[in-house]
Amino acid sequence: MSAGHMAVTSPAAAPAAAVPVIVCDTPQDECGVRDVLDRLGDKWSVYVVVELASGIRRFKELQRAIPGGISQRMLTLTVRRLERDGLVKRTVYPTVPPQVEYELTEMGHSLTHLVKALADWSIAHRRAIAASHEAWDAAHPDPEAR
Amino acid sequence: MSAGHMAVTSPAAAPAAAVPVIVCDTPQDECGVRDVLDRLGDKWSVYVVVELASGIRRFKELQRAIPGGISQRMLTLTVRRLERDGLVKRTVYPTVPPQVEYELTEMGHSLTHLVKALADWSIAHRRAIAASHEAWDAAHPDPEAR
DNA sequence: CCGAATCCCATGTGATACTG
DNA sequence: CAGTATCACATGGGATTCGG
């Protein structure tokens, strides 16, 4: 897995301006974008990364800070995966009661730039998307693809 | 929903260099990043966007082009959602047999920049992540968080 | 306090068959 | 060709309980 290669060229038949055309030589993995999305696409990873972007947090602090009310189970699974990916560093202090601290690694911090780009795009197009939803829903009363 | 606001300031307690600190005034939606990830985080949307980045495609062309073998059902659901989001334009030609063409809207094309950023990050850190996986797996023989 | 174990349900996804 | 309908199954995720 993950042996994709990517190149960006000028649009050939693309409509407007300087839109990057994405080309893969290994269509099986669509240039590895899937790698990142598998990592950030779940329900909670981004929240953890965003919270840790502000500094070191303990388990309970993370749980309280994350909007929507993450369960212990999901927080555990999420930080485990992020740790395995090398995005989060986990430090255990053998005190009693136990204390565990989580922080972003350097690679984890580099991800916050991406998250910021996602947020910027999201904010910039929020209204357009909402309008598109309204229009679509008005034209399609019952069917469910929402 | 989605009334979040976001600001980027200089890192306060952040470790290293110019890492953006993400601040939300409405923690309930973590700056709207969730909006984009809900859209791109599913299994197929990115593939469709990447393929359409190269130009107009018909239903069957999309299905054949997408790696992993997407089912009719999932392709239908995926393009429906993208259409509802205003990222894809769907054009029906009332011929027989019927012909339907899909293409990215302007907003859809703007997304390809984000996808490219994700791909770049993924490629840049692929090896580091793989190494992290190996190290973690070696240290944790049996447990499953993979 | 941190987290593992278990139970249970909602959702996502695939396979197949059928229609305009 | 471009879907829709139905079923069957895997996974994600919440609630709760138990342990170090």
TrEMBL record, chains A, B:
Record keywords, A-Z: DNA-binding, Transcription, Transcription regulation
A Pfam family the protein falls into: HxlR
Domain (HTH hxlR-type): residue spans on this chain: 31-130
PROSITE patterns xref list: HTH_HXLR
MF terms (GO), sorted A to Z: DNA binding
Signal peptide (UniProt feature, chain positions): none
Alphabetized PANTHER family for the sequence: TRANSCRIPTIONAL REGULATOR, MARR FAMILY, TRANSCRIPTIONAL REGULATORY PROTEIN
Name of this protein: DNA-binding HxlR family transcriptional regulator
Naturally occurring in which organism (per UniProt): Streptomyces umbrinus
Lineage per the UniProt record: Bacteria, Bacillati, Actinomycetota, Actinomycetes, Kitasatosporales
